[in-house]
Structures are given as C-alpha cells and as structure tokens.
Design a protein that fits this description.
Layout: H1 2-17, H2 23-27, H3 30-63, H4 69-81, H5 84-95, H6 102-107, H7 116-142, H8 145-152, H9 157-168, H10 170-185, H11 189-195, H12 205-215, H13 217-249
C-alpha cells in the first residue's frame, strides 16, 4: 500500500491542482497544440525506427553467439541508465554541425541538429532499448524448436522469420513498440540538448510543460495531466492488447 501510494498520490495531487474552469483553453492554446502534435508525430517516427532497427538487433542478440556479444548488449542497454542529457550531448557531438558525422553531412547540405530529425533521433536513442529488452527476452523464452521444425520442412530463413518467429513473439513486439512510443513521447533531456526548443519545430510537450512551469503554472499542470492521461491509455492498451495476443497465440 505504501508503494502504491508513492505512485498514486503525486498523480492525485496533479488532478487536484488542475484549474478545471480554464482547463480546455489551457490545453488548446496554439503553443500547446503545436507541441502535442509535434510530439505525437516524432514519437510515431521514432517508434517506427525502433522497430526497424531494434528487431534485427534483438534477433542478433538472442539467436547468435559471437565475441563481444555481452559488450554489445551492454552498450545497447546503456541508454536505460544513461542520463538523457548525456545522451543528448553524445548525439550532438555525433550529428551536430561540428560532430563526427554531422560535419561531413553538412558539407552535403544536410543539417540534423536542432531540427525535427534531431527530435526523432533523440527519442529513438532513449526508446529503442525498451523494444530490444522486451523482444530479446521473448525470443529466448520461446526457444528455437519451432524455427528448427520450419527449417527442416524446407522453409527459407526469411520465411521462418515471417511465418514462425515473429508471430510467436508478436505480443512482446507490440508491447515493446508501445513502450518505446511512450518513452519517446515523454523524452525531455536528450531532446532539449540535441534538438533545442524551437516552437513548432523541436518543442515537444515535455519541453512545453517545462517552459510553462515558469510563466504559467496552471498551463503546465493542465498539460502534465494530458501527458498522464496519454500514458495511462498507452499502458492500458499495452496490457490489454498483450493479453489478447497471448490468448490468440496460445
């Protein structure tokens, strides 16, 4: 009960602090809607990148064995424990205008830092480990016996992956993708450091809340409640969908 109270009471405090008489105008201001729209679009793009890059990575970690595998796994999971600001600095020194890759890209006319692309990269950096952890654990749990049966029946590796492996771990894949989306939507430190806070360009909802906290606390509380509601809906959909998928695959 004490542990539950530690989580629930702060949320109750936010709800109690909301100025309900002006709630709708506060969350429908131009800056608020722009931040929410940008956050949703970049989070969806980051989630797509997490799936595109994280699925092969999880398969490599779960189904192969090579020298340095433990080091690779540790590096992949590093954003889970790394302060987001440090991650933002690392991205800035990699893709910034004077960064390791940013400088050559700038010569080609491509600027990544302080752009919507930077927001997506920052969100992907912090969110992808959630998908990799979820999917790798599921792959190790289901084992390789069904994949071996498919291979003995003459199926190609791509067919086994598409018809056997991915359907078996679909609940974990969906769960990991939704958690990645939620983490991307709530990302703050890496985004601020790498992408800045330009209204309509790189200012997502967490950044808008941080700025409103100083100038308009009521707006900050109202927007915080919106983010809490979105997070609750995401968690509910994740567990409901995962239960349904597990029932089907079972």
């Amino acid at each position: 009960m004490v542990g539950a109270a530690l989580v629930v009471l702060p949320l109750v405090a936010i709800v109690a602090r909301v100025d309900w008489a002006h709630f709708v105008p506060l969350i429908t201001s131009e800056s608020s809607l722009a931040a929410l729209s940008l956050g949703l679009r970049t989070s969806l793009a980051a989630t797509a990148l997490c799936v595109l890059l994280g699925v092969p990575l999880a398969l490599t970690l779960a189904r192969t064995s090579f020298r340095g595998q433990r080091i690779l796994r540790a590096l992949v999971l590093l954003p889970l424990v790394l302060p987001p600001v440090v991650g933002g600095l690392a991205l800035l020194y990699t893709f910034g205008r004077r960064g390791m890759l940013g400088a050559p890209l700038r010569e080609l006319g491509v600027d990544i830092a302080f752009s919507p692309t930077a927001v997506v990269l920052a969100q992907t950096f912090v969110a992808m480990p959630f998908l990799v952890v979820s999917l790798e654990g599921a792959l190790r749990t289901v084992g390789t016996r069904y994949e071996a049966v498919g291979a003995t029946l003459g199926a190609r590796p791509t067919t086994v992956l598409r018809r056997v492996t991915l359907p078996l771990v679909l609940p974990a894949l969906v769960s990991g993708a939704v958690l990645s989306f939620a983490r991307a939507l709530g990302e703050f430190g890496a985004t601020l450091t790498f992408a800045g806070s330009l209204q309509g360009t790189t200012r997502t909802l967490p950044l808008e809340i941080y700025l409103q906290r100083e100038t308009d606390p009521d707006a900050a509380v109202a927007l915080s409640l919106v983010l809490v509601v979105v997070a609750v809906v995401i968690v509910a959909v994740t567990y409901r969908g995962r239960g349904s998928l597990m029932g089907r695959t079972g």
